[in-house]
TrEMBL record:
Transmembrane segments: 7-25, 52-72, 93-110, 130-150
Family label: Belongs to the MreD family.
Keyword DNA damage attached: no
Organism domain of life: Bacteria
Keywords attached to this entry: Cell inner membrane, Cell membrane, Cell shape, Membrane, Transmembrane, Transmembrane helix
Organism encoding this protein: Lysobacter concretionis Ko07 = DSM 16239
Keyword Transcription regulation tagged: no
Protein name: Rod shape-determining protein MreD
Single GO biological process annotation from the record: regulation of cell shape
Function: Involved in formation of the rod shape of the cell. May also contribute to regulation of formation of penicillin-binding proteins.
InterPro entries listed in its UniProt record: Cell_shape_determining_MreD, MreD_proteobac
Length: 161
């Protein structure tokens, strides 16, 4: 049973995820950029499966494709694949300790990189550099703070009684 949360939290978290993805980084740090939007969508698919699913992931992905200027449908496909896998294993994943959830999210982010590489190979786009494969480690390390922050905002535990 999911609790009610502030109606502003879902769109604001998606917008923040988009903005963090657009944030310019120095070239040396670019390969370490986590897929912020995937972390946000993963949280919502795990915590509110009745409202957030494949359609939501697709729409957010298309908005991201337009925002980032990437191949139309690429991020939509990436987020839908991730949301599908999360929906399949949600019942187990919800009850994992946070460090095990981080490992599972790291595996999903690695799968996301494989999907991107497959898209690039299929379309004949230049292959991605080897450093490109480090970003899932960053996302895995950031999952616990992202999860705890969104959970605190969703459940209102940040308010004083």
């Amino acid at each position: 049973m999911s609790r009610r949360y502030q109606s502003w939290l879902l769109p604001v978290s998606v917008i923040v995820g988009l903005l963090l993805g657009l944030l310019p980084l120095p070239p040396a740090m670019q390969p370490l950029r986590p897929y912020w939007l995937a972390l946000v969508v993963a949280y919502w698919v795990i915590e509110d499966p009745d409202r957030i699913g494949l359609g939501f992931a697709f729409i957010v992905g298309v908005v991201a494709d337009i925002s980032f200027g990437s191949l139309l449908g690429e991020q939509a496909l990436r987020l839908v694949v991730m949301a599908f896998i999360l929906q399949r294993f949600r019942a187990r994943l919800r009850f994992f300790p946070l460090w095990q959830q981080a490992l599972a999210i790291g595996g999903l982010l690695l799968n996301d990189r494989i999907v991107v590489a497959a898209i690039h190979v299929a379309l004949g786009i230049q292959p991605l550099p080897m450093m490109f494969w480090l970003a899932p480690l960053t996302g895995m390390a950031l999952w616990p703070p992202v999860f705890l922050l969104l959970d605190a905002l969703r459940l209102g535990s940040w308010r004083r009684s």
